[in-house]
Amino acid sequence: MTGILYIVATPIGNLNDMTARAIDTLKSVGVIACEDTRTSGKLLSFFNISTPTTAYHEHNADTQTARLIERLQSGQSVALISDAGTPLISDPGYRLVKACHDESITVVPIVGACAVIGALSVAGLPSDKFSFVGFLPAKQHGRIESLKAYQDRTETLIFYEAPHRITDCLSDMADVFGGEREATLCREISKTFETIKKLPLADLLEFVKNDPNQQRGEIVLVVAGNTQKEQKADYDEWLLAIAKELPPKKASAIVADVLGIKKSEVYDRLLELQKA
Coiled coil located at which positions (predicted)? Predict the structure, then answer.
């Protein structure tokens, strides 16, 4: 009889968020696979969990997946945890879970804290449809290109960002999405210095710039979807009409101001229409 792979969520800040089921599961398995054994060791020690641990991270996932599958096939159950929160959300583990499915090994979620869902729940933005993007590229060119791919998406967007890049990220978001697009900064969720701040992107950038404390810790950005998409598709006719009376840039500026969208977008659209 094969063992079971348990995907165990752990706290993202407040240790009181650790569930009794998670503790019982971690105590009962044969081994705990950790993203970082030193980090997880502190958590396990706090809850008096003495189960043996083994490292499982992106650099050893290929070899460790095979070893853990062997353990599971021998009848030993395994728990997978990340440094904080729910495993596999911007963390390693996918290959192990996939291998379990391929080998018909049962995988059980032990639910708990998750920064993505926690941030979405308090963001004050539509939560019926959303996309989790995770971390954007570290370099500006790659970050901007990635943001452009989401520019016209209508669902709420959720990003992770490193504290040392947060101002650059917000600046690029304001440029690509427009400074008026609403967003919520969720920083240090469940920790002592938690911040939940909802503002238009341009104002949120200034808020973070002016307070060095907002440039520290774990950060989730929840950004509103593009609610102007349908509206933008309807302005072609009167954009062309205004352009007959005014220079292209002036006509584009007027339409952009009325609709509250970027002048460059309207100008590019006008050039497309004039070429057609």
Answer: none
pLDDT at 217 over 90: yes
pLDDT tens sequence across 30-50: 999 999 999 999 999 999 999
Amino acid (1-letter code) at residue 267 = Y
| Ranges of each domain in the chain | 5-113, 116-223, 235-274
What is residue 24's three-state secondary structure?
helix
Q: How far is the C-alpha of 95 from the C-alpha of 21, rounded, in Å? A: 25
CATH fold of 116-223, please?
A: 3.30.950
Picking from 136, 199, 200, the residue whose alpha carbon sits closest to that of residue 168 is 136
To the question of domain 5-113 being in CATH 3.40.1010.10, the answer is: yes
Task: Give the Å distances, CA to CA, from 157 to 8, 129, 151, 223, 230.
Answer: 25, 9, 10, 5, 18
